[in-house]
């Protein structure tokens, strides 16, 4: 009886697994292979020349700069927010959790438009900013704001359930023994969440480098100044400069693959870390 009941289950599970791999192959692996094939189809000379273009190098530098600013800001915010939410009870805690999830629930284009309405020349703070010589929209500060907004939840959302699962007993014991709040955080809380923290940072970094919608609205598409790598790819594609477009796309995909490998290594490390049990 057991064998007869298990056989159809194995057949169904095998079919589902095969269907999953087929969908991933068609919608994920094949386009990725095509990007690299189109980028390297004419040898290495064309991709190297495309990456040496001033606009391409500007887009690469700006993308790395934005990620280099947005990720540390989200690291600090994510740690502070998750520690407060997981370790303390205070009025408005549920509201804070909801606000952290807000960037995941609205379109990035809408968030970019909101920044234009607030900081743009005709926006709420536009006249005051112009009077003081401060430019946010259609400049690097606007791209930083948009990138910080869309990547805001990744570190906090990774740490909140982890800290809640670990409870408050170790922190309370440290405080009882005379440790200060900073000592408790640095020597008790932080070591217990270090791998989850790195995992959230990787996700935040990947989103910061690949964000298109919000950055497109606030950047103004100024070549050599405010175009990140995703925007530069769009410009090249619209100009039918396909070899250069696929070259920059392949570089961006390569950065994403490096992030994916690092994420997989962290997942493997997390699976063997007793402090992350129950994740």
Automatic annotation (TrEMBL):
The keyword Transmembrane helix applies. PROSITE patterns: ABC_TM1 (PS50928). Gene3D superfamilies: MetI-like. One of its GO terms (cellular component) is plasma membrane. It is found in: Cell inner membrane. The complex is composed of two ATP-binding proteins (CysA), two transmembrane proteins (CysT and CysW) and a solute-binding protein (CysP). Part of the ABC transporter complex CysAWTP (TC 3.A.1.6.1) involved in sulfate/thiosulfate import. Probably responsible for the translocation of the substrate across the membrane. It is a multi-pass membrane protein. One of its GO terms (molecular function) is ABC-type sulfate transporter activity. It comes from the Bacteria. The keyword Iron does not apply. Keywords: Cell inner membrane, Cell membrane, Membrane, Sulfate transport, Transmembrane, Transmembrane helix, Transport. The chain crosses the membrane at residues 16-41, 62-86, 106-129, 136-156, 240-262. This is Sulfate transport system permease protein CysW. It holds the Pfam family BPD_transp_1. It comes from Aliidongia dinghuensis. Residues 60-267 form the ABC transmembrane type-1 domain. InterPro entries: CysW_permease (IPR011866), MetI-like (IPR000515), MetI-like_sf (IPR035906), Sulph_transpt2 (IPR005667).
